[in-house]
């Protein structure tokens, strides 16, 4: 069993191959280095098969409960969640490494770059297979300087500013994570996952951080840990590092968007039993995720740069993932992060080629494209309108018990349907751009999209939920804890439906050359919102003001004391 | 405690080495080799007798640590005429430090008086380095002398209170930190780097003897002063452009965390010792690295030099590792010690924990700023960039290795009773 830990260690072997040896053979060694990574992927698949067939495997190099090993309790825990993540990380890591060999070829510090990237993959593998909260935190922290180092460039000031911002934001989140661990240990006396969950369930604590304010121990711990997750997963308002980090080389962006940002989703999943004990924490998670989705999506729409567009798209997707966690659909979040990781790695690794190709051929990629027709066919519009509004009707009927769907507990089904609706609507609205294609084809594509997305959510995602959380009672408990008040949920569905209808009306009017006169109270805020989103809601300005404020106080202290007190 | 002859021997080796060193005054290379040899001999001698001390925790740890740090800081110095006095003074201070640690109450206090006096005199002697007479620092060490003398002749509780003040001067605590800052700012050569470990070690050792006798009001006062020290040290460090001062104030905030922990738990865990030694070592490492910069480019501030990452790779890697260590990242000793303090069983949950975490966060801010300012950005074309020489790099590498060893070694290793 101990041999399983070789899988996380294999990237270190590649690192040794790349860094140790004469400079002349560097390229050959870098090529050979792919083999241990492929072996790591194969090993991860084997672990996956083993944990599915024989159950979780735990390997500890410390005495659980011993205070002596608190700072470095090295241990590995391979279960379905960690095995899934390991397959993803080793797979994407191998592809990105292979890509980097060519992409960074003849760059200054080539070997060091590859070594850092491999070490990051190693740390990620250790993080997802950590046996306890402290080892997870050790790896979590190590990612902060590693990514900062990967993003640094010697003399490029915007890159340096971005790296500084990333480091500062992540470290702030790390400190909240640390506070969460300290609180968890102080309340429950353990950092072992299973023991922590059991003790938190058995002995509920109530804390009073401020007069008149009482929170449960589980809520306080999970909220602090969630702030840690917010930093790595670029959740509002700790998302500001993301745009600045895009100056890093493309392989780093790919690794970041396909791997590192998923850390938040992984953390919440790993601690799902703890989050399941706190309704408040889950609601906060949902709220933060929701705000991040809106922010990321709006920001993405106004970008003119391909990497920035992808960056804000990631913020939105991470918000979506966190929102899923906030609704108790933990496994759905993992499903989402896998799909997003694969998609975003492909997109980033390809965007370098797109830019490169566009530089070589100025008319590319528009050459050969037909000019889009402006008219939106009536059939397309109608089918789109109906399909996007079909699901909210089903959701509302299911919520109020009119419609009984024998798939899961109704709350779970409703959550899955909700996400299926949002995803399919997004895809269907994108299909309306296909105006040169016959309207019946687009309409069929819309219907197929709807069925495909619903199938994916209700069967594939549900099957994945059963895979990750085999006990249906646990799943039901999480959904129950995360359930929003009925009226609020109805209002959310209603508001989204209204927004959808308005979008279709706007599309229809625009396609038929009709102008929509907006009243001032709509037009003025719309323009302001545009400017506000252009400036990223001025959150960075607020942070800068806060920083300047602290520095002003520090200067004031320094000047007043000068010559009198050292 | 051990017999008097042993203490005399401990103190005599470095003193005799310093005295004999004068014979090599005109040959800096030979003098440096001699001082290294003396520090090594002192270390080797201590390793053989360290088991004979009754003190179960700190003395066996600190006694070998001091000659080791003396050796490393001497090794990291260029063999230059200007550094000769600092080398010999390192041996003298080492002898006094060993005497304070190993001596019985009376002898230890007498040596402590001498120690305070010597550092005060040195601050006056080297006033030209900092440009002005550091009266605050000299006054603080003068106060330390007086307190040590009173502690020698008075009876408890007066002796305890004045000795606590002496400890607060050595292990910096607001408002007695002036001497510590002045020592960093004004002393030449490797002395600040050596004192970065020596002063806190002596203060902590003294504090250990006082913990059982501390009254409730004293403990509360210490806790308040410690929180004030964290805030004050962090704020002052944030605005420093002089590296030595930044390090001094950063240390004030770091050691205030330790003071608060001791006051809150009224115990000293092995992790506290790890934390103390690690902070001292990493600060010593930074001071050595900065001294290497000053040896090349003069007394510059942080704005005077930047962009050394590509041109001075050895220096840059080591400084970056030290920066990672000092902001409490694994696998270095500061991280292990800090986590050990925070996960102590008797630690009360209080608002001070927020300040502690804020202190570490502020440290991330200004240390990353320092590192980025120094290592990255456009380099100055008018400067000739010269990387660390072998001995400078070796000293820093050994410090980094020690920090990693402190970080990954289980805390029981530091508790001889276990």
Secondary structure layout plus pairing:
The complex is a heterodimer of chains A (566) and B (418).
Chain A: H1 6-19, H2 26-32, H3 34-54, E1 57-60, E2 75-78, H4 80-103, H5 110-128, H6 133-151, H7 157-188, H8 193-202, E3 206-210, E4 213-216, H9 217-232, H10 241-245, H11 250-258, H12 263-270, H13 272-275, H14 279-301, H15 306-326, H16 330-360, H17 378-399, H18 410-431, H19 439-468, H20 472-482, H21 486-511, H22 520-534, H23 539-561
Antiparallel strand pairs in A: 1-2, 3-4
Helix pairs in contact in A: 1-2, 1-3, 1-5, 3-4, 4-5, 4-11, 4-16, 5-6, 6-7, 7-9, 9-12, 9-14, 11-16, 12-15, 12-16, 14-15, 15-16, 16-19, 17-18, 17-19, 17-21, 18-19
Chain B: H1 4-21, H2 28-49, H3 58-75, H4 84-102, H5 105-125, H6 127-130, H7 135-153, H8 158-170, H9 178-186, H10 191-210, H11 216-238, H12 243-265, H13 270-297, H14 313-326, H15 333-342, H16 352-375, H17 390-408
Helix pairs in contact in B: 1-2, 1-4, 2-3, 2-4, 3-4, 3-10, 3-17, 4-5, 4-10, 5-7, 7-8, 7-9, 8-10, 9-10, 9-12, 10-13, 11-12, 11-16, 12-13, 12-16, 13-14, 13-15, 13-17, 14-16, 14-17, 15-17
Question: How would you describe this protein?
Answer:
The complex is a heterodimer of chains A (566) and B (418). By secondary structure, chain A is mainly alpha-helical. Chain A folds into three domains: 131 residues; 224 residues, no CATH class; 157 residues, no CATH class. Helices cover 73% and strands 3% of the residues of chain A. Chain A is built from 23 helices and four strands. Chain A has a two-stranded antiparallel ribbon. In chain A, strand 3 and strand 4 form a beta hairpin. The longest helix of chain A has 32 residues. Chain B contains 17 helices and no strands. The radius of gyration of chain B is 20 Å and the shape is globular. The longest helix of chain B is centred in the C-terminal third of the chain and has 28 residues. Chain B has two domains: 213 residues, no CATH class; 202 residues, no CATH class. At the A-B interface, helix 6, helix 7 and helix 23 of A face helix 9, helix 11, helix 15 and helix 16 of B.
């Amino acid at each position: 069993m101990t041999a399983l830990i070789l899988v996380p260690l294999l990237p270190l072997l590649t690192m040794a191959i790349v860094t140790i040896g004469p400079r002349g053979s560097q390229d050959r060694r870098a090529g050979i280095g792919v083999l241990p990574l492929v072996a790591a992927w194969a090993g991860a698949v084997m672990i996956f098969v083993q944990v599915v067939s024989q159950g979780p495997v735990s390997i500890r190099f410390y005495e659980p409960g011993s205070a002596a090993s608190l700072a470095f309790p090295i241990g590995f825990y391979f279960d379905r969640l960690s095995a899934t993540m390991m397959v993803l990380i080793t797979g994407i890591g191998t592809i990105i490494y292979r890509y980097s060999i060519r992409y960074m070829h003849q760059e200054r510090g080539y070997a060091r770059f590859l070594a850092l990237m491999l070490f990051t993959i190693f740390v990620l593998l250790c993080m997802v297979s950590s046996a306890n909260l402290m080892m997870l935190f050790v790896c979590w922290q190590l990612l902060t300087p590693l990514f900062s180092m990967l993003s640094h460039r010697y003399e490029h000031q915007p890159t340096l500013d971005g790296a500084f911002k990333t480091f500062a934001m992540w470290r702030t989140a790390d400190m909240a994570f640390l506070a969460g661990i300290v609180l968890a240990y102080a309340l429950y006396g353990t950092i072992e996952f299973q023991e922590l969950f059991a003790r938190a369930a058995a002995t509920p604590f109530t804390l009073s951080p401020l007069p008149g304010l009482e929170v449960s121990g589980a809520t306080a711990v999970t909220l602090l840990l969630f702030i840690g997750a917010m930093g790595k997963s670029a959740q509002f308002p700790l998302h500001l590092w993301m745009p600045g980090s895009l100056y890093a080389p493309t392989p780093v962006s790919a690794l970041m968007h396909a791997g590192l940002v998923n850390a938040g989703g992984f953390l919440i999943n790993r601690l799902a039993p703890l989050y399941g004990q706190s309704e408040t924490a889950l609601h906060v998670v949902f709220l933060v995720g929701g705000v991040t989705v809106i922010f990321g999506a709006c920001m993405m729409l106004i970008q003119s740069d391909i990497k920035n567009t992808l960056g804000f798209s990631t913020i939105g997707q991470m918000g979506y993932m966190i929102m899923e966690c906030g609704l108790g659909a933990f496994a759905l979040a993992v499903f989402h992060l896998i799909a997003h990781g694969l998609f975003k790695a492909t997109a980033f690794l390809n965007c370098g080629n797109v830019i490169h190709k566009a530089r070589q051929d100025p008319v590319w990629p528009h050459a050969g494209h037909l000019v889009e027709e402006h008219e939106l066919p009536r059939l397309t519009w109608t089918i789109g309108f109906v399909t996007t509004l079909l699901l909210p009707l089903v959701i509302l009927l299911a919520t109020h018990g009119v419609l009984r769907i024998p798939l899961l507990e109704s709350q779970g089904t409703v959550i899955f349907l909700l996400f299926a609706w949002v995803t399919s609507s997004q895809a269907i609205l994108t299909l309306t751009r296909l105006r040169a294609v016959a309207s019946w084809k687009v309409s069929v594509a819309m219907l197929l999209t709807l069925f495909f997305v619903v199938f994916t959510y209700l069967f594939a995602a549900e099957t994945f939920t059963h895979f990750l959380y085999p006990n249906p009672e646990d799943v039901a408990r999480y959904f129950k804890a995360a359930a929003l008040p009925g009226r609020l949920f109805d209002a959310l569905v209603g508001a989204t439906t209204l927004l959808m209808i308005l979008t279709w009306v706007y599309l229809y009017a625009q396609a038929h050359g009709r102008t929509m006169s907006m009243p001032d109270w709509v037009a003025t805020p719309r323009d302001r919102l545009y400017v506000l989103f252009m400036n990223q809601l001025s959150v960075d300005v607020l942070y800068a003001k806060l920083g300047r404020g602290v520095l002003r106080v520090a200067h004031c202290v320094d000047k007043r004391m000068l010559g009198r007190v050292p | 405690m051990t017999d008097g002859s042993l203490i005399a021997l401990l103190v005599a080796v470095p003193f005799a080495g310093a005295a004999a060193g004068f014979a090599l005054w005109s040959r800096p290379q030979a003098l440096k080799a001699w001082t290294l040899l003396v520090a090594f001999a002192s270390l080797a001698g201590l390793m053989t007798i360290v088991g004979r001390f009754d003190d179960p925790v700190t003395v066996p740890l600190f006694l070998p640590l001091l000659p080791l740090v003396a050796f490393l800081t001497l090794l990291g110095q260029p063999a230059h005429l200007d550094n000769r006095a600092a080398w010999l003074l390192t041996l003298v201070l080492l002898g006094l430090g060993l005497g304070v640690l190993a001596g019985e109450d009376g002898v230890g206090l007498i040596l402590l008086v001498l120690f305070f006096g010597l550092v005060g005199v040195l601050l006056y002697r080297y006033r030209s380095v900092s440009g002005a007479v550091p009266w605050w620092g000299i006054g603080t060490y003068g106060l330390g002398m007086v307190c040590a003398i009173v502690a020698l002749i008075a009876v408890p509780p007066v002796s305890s209170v004045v000795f606590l003040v002496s400890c607060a001067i050595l292990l910096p605590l607001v408002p007695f930190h002036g001497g510590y800052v002045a020592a960093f700012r004004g002393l030449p050569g490797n002395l600040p780097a050596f004192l970065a470990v020596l002063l806190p070690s002596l203060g902590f050792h003294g504090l250990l003897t006082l913990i059982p006798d501390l009254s409730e009001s004293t403990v509360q006062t210490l806790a308040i002063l410690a929180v004030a020290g964290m805030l004050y040290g962090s704020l002052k460090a944030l605005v420093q452009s002089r590296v030595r001062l930044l390090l001094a104030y950063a240390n004030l905030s770091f050691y205030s965390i330790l003071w608060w922990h001791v006051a809150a738990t009224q115990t000293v865990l092995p992790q506290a010792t790890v934390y103390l030694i690690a902070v001292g070592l990493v600060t010593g490492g930074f001071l050595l690295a900065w001294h290497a910069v000053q040896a090349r480019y003069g007394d510059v501030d942080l704005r005077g030099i930047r962009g050394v990452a590509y041109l001075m790779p050895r220096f840059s890697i080591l400084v970056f590792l030290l920066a990672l260590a000092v902001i409490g990242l694994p696998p270095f000793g500061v991280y292990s010690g800090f986590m050990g303090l925070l996960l102590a069983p008797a630690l009360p949950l209080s608002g001070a924990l927020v300040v502690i975490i804020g202190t570490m966060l502020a440290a991330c801010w200004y240390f990353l700023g320092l590192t980025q300012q120094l290592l990255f950005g456009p380099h100055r074309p008018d400067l000739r960039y010269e990387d660390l020489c072998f001995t400078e790099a070796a000293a820093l590498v050994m410090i980094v290795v020690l920090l990693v060893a402190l970080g990954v070694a289980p805390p029981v290793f530091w508790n001889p009773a276990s």
